[in-house]
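JOB MANIFEST
job_type = single_chain_structure
chain_count = 1
residues = 564
[input]
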Amino acid sequence: MPNLTDNPLIIQGDRTILLDVHAPRADEARNALIPFAELEKSPEHLHTYRITPLSLWNAASAGFTPDVVSDTLDGFSRFPVPPAVRTWVVETMARFGSIRMIPSDDPDYLVLTTDIPLVYRELEASRQMKKYLVPSGTDEFRLAVLDRGTVKQELLKLGWPVQDEAPLKDGDPLEISLRETTLSGSPLVIRDYQRTAAAALVGDKGPGTGFGTIVLPCGSGKTVVGMTVMEMLATSTLILTTNVAAVHQWAAELVDKTTLTREEIGEYTGDKKEIQSVTIATYQILTWRPDKESPFPHFSIFRERAWGLIIYDEVHLLPAPVFRVTAEIQTVRRCGLTATLVREDGCEGDVFSLVGPKRYDVPWKDLEEQGWIATARCMEIRVPLATEHEIDYAVAGQRQKYRIASENPAKYAVVLELIREHEGDSILVIGQYLKQLEKIASELGVPIITGKTPNVERDRIYGEFRSGAMKVIVVSKVANFAIDLPDASVAIQISGTFGSRQEEAQRLGRILRPKDKDSHFYTIVTARTVEEDFAANRQKFLAEQGYEYSITRWDEMTEGGGTA
């Protein structure tokens, strides 16, 4: 009989879960919670998770049942699970599938149906839904095809996730296959989890399949998953990504690993406006418009071809205006790729409704143990505020306090020492504030990449860094996303975007490509300032994935004689 006092979880009646990180099965429990619970707090001893409706609906869409959730809670709980929590889990997960969207005889309309009379009456009485739904029977409504996405958004806000079983259109055919050997000469092996993730999204190509979000760590090969989906669907594809460097990277990967030629791949950016069978565009060009009152002229790209697949790279960054057009094109197969479903704007529900629910997720530590991503050592180094800034900090407002602490000049010596400690490694120095980054780059005599750096120059610097000709580069937040720097093994973060959890995950991801040695992720924080609080929030997502931050003071490190 197992000793329940050794179990790591305490389930509370308000649906929060306390995880005792020192308990014997803490890591196992953490991984089991990832599919259906969200981490809220991660202090040293007890981490707090919360079960939410959206976390349960994402779990349901990925194939989890209420029994699986209940068994997980029972198996790891130190005390009996409150009956009210168990009942709420069952009732909440049952909402997924209670309302279905299916085709109608008229191609311009769809049918929304439910087998539950109370649900039907709730929708019938909803003033918000009267704009979209027309009663057409005792258990169904009719809605226009163009309102398909909007209806799903609005119903989610009312607490009813829609199971979308309306058919999707096939786009123009595309001959594409993955190579057995890449053009660069390496064998191309699709990992089991990559193939499983792609298959979970594509399904049997029937109703209810072909759309959704795949969650995998940075460095685990999300691009390969996207290309596998492209091969399985063999259709004209629009790929949306974060910046021009990522556009070039996608194009290079497609040519290297698939049978597509460079001529079959179009770039749609500020520099080029090409439309081909496979077109790669940036979010920035899509959301450009002459002024705030004008329409978005480049939304026309969604209608330029009969796309059969849209890939939303780094879907957690999908700009809000693009949700609008995404709501209109619900007949196209959609694949969201991301390392984290966390959105700082709180629009996770829009990703669920419009791109699609989570279809596949895997704990980062699982892939680390299998050798698919690097082992990372995370350390927060606290430095004192420079004496000359103490008065300025004391009288500043909250926002200015954060900037003063972030730009603390006492951080420069720490950066220089860490680079000396890791001489010979490929090192990224990452920050938020340009003057701070420019000063460090100047002192180190190394190149800097910011939003102002021309794309040609960015590609040159990234290329030299990948080749090993350049061992240290300084980068702003433009390098947070969708940039493959496989040999980077050290990241030194000197400032960040307030408490952004997604940014922390992405920055760690820059150094997670598998390699023969551990990677190191340093965050330099000004002690006894608001930066400590924001750093704690930033680290929350990584704590959820099982990463531990060691925290140390710089003066103690230097007295101890080193860091690595």
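[summary]
Residues 4-94 form one domain.
The chain has a mean pLDDT of 92.
exit_status = 0
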